[in-house]
Amino acid sequence: MKKSTGKVPGLAVVLVGQRKDSQTYVRNKTKACEEAGMKFVITELPDNCTEIQVCNALSSYNENPSIHGILVQLPLPQHLDEGKVLDLLRLEKDVDGFHPLNMGNLAMRGREPLFIPCTPKGCIELLLRSDVKIMGKKAVVIGRSNIVGLPASLLLQRHHATATLVHAFTKNPEQVTREADIVLTAVGVPNLVRGSWLKPGAVVIDVGTYPAEDSNNEHGYRLMGDVCYEEAVNVASAITPVPGGVGPMTIAMLLSNTLESAKRALN
Ligand code: GUN
């Protein structure tokens, strides 16, 4: 057993607005930090807050030595410039890996980002721990968001897959996905990926998180993935469910990145 340093890793979250899904994600992150014994602090700002208020919160966490990771829950309300806000994050505390320098280093060969975005990192971890070979495989990523699609395609390439990115302007996306050994989808359109979109034996990772109204649910909605699970489960060799598939991995990777950052701060 390793000797304790007595230092506690600290995560700070900035949450702007009242989006129910963002509130749920942040609640889950809080709970995970508490369970792991990590420090967790949050700044909650109203929907109509100014960019200066968000930047002030970030600046103070940037300077706080007890905070090792800072996360701005996305998306931000439309009137706020996401790029400007993320640019302000101190690179060594960017545990989401969304700073353009971290993302740029992820994209370039021979360079290492300080942090890899949590959801794509969690997806790769799922593949590795399920003994799915990535090297030389055809991987298709659906959706090109900065949070999941883009970094996931970069990360799959880093693991030596032939990665193709499918998006809203791709012609015949189902033809492209039918070639894939690994399909990772992160769009937010329920039932977009049908069983007929898949090659038999493909591995399917569903990162879709559409909040569908559901009055029977305590939060008033339930999460739906991008994949028509009932069809896909009969074609795929492995598939992640929604909820309970990738979501917990995102949180695990966030804690792992925060711990890594705290360890670096000791040295
Ligand atoms: N919104 C949806 N997923 C994420 C995530 O992984 N990190 C942040 N900051 N916002 C998100």
UniProtKB/TrEMBL annotation:
Keyword Cell membrane: no
UniProt xrefs under PROSITE patterns: THF_DHG_CYH_2
Quaternary state and interactors: Homodimer.
Species whose genome carries this gene: Ilex paraguariensis
Function: Catalyzes the oxidation of 5,10-methylenetetrahydrofolate to 5,10-methenyltetrahydrofolate and then the hydrolysis of 5,10-methenyltetrahydrofolate to 10-formyltetrahydrofolate.
Keywords: Hydrolase, Multifunctional enzyme, NADP, One-carbon metabolism, Oxidoreductase, Photorespiration
Associated pathway: One-carbon metabolism; tetrahydrofolate interconversion
Tetrahydrofolate dehydrogenase/cyclohydrolase NAD(P)-binding domain span: 117-265
Reactions the enzyme catalyzes: (6R)-5,10-methylene-5,6,7,8-tetrahydrofolate + NADP(+) = (6R)-5,10-methenyltetrahydrofolate + NADPH
InterPro entries: Aminoacid_DH-like_N_sf, NAD(P)-bd_dom_sf, THF_DH/CycHdrlase, THF_DH/CycHdrlase_cat_dom, THF_DH/CycHdrlase_CS, THF_DH/CycHdrlase_NAD-bd_dom
GO terms (BP aspect): one-carbon metabolic process; photorespiration
UniProt xrefs under PANTHER family: BIFUNCTIONAL PROTEIN FOLD 1, MITOCHONDRIAL, C-1-TETRAHYDROFOLATE SYNTHASE, CYTOPLASMIC-RELATED
One Pfam family linked to the record: THF_DHG_CYH
Record domain Tetrahydrofolate dehydrogenase/cyclohydrolase catalytic: where: 3-96
Superkingdom of this protein's organism: Eukaryota
GO molecular function annotation: hydrolase activity; methylenetetrahydrofolate dehydrogenase (NADP+) activity
Similarity section: Belongs to the tetrahydrofolate dehydrogenase/cyclohydrolase family.
Protein name: Methenyltetrahydrofolate cyclohydrolase
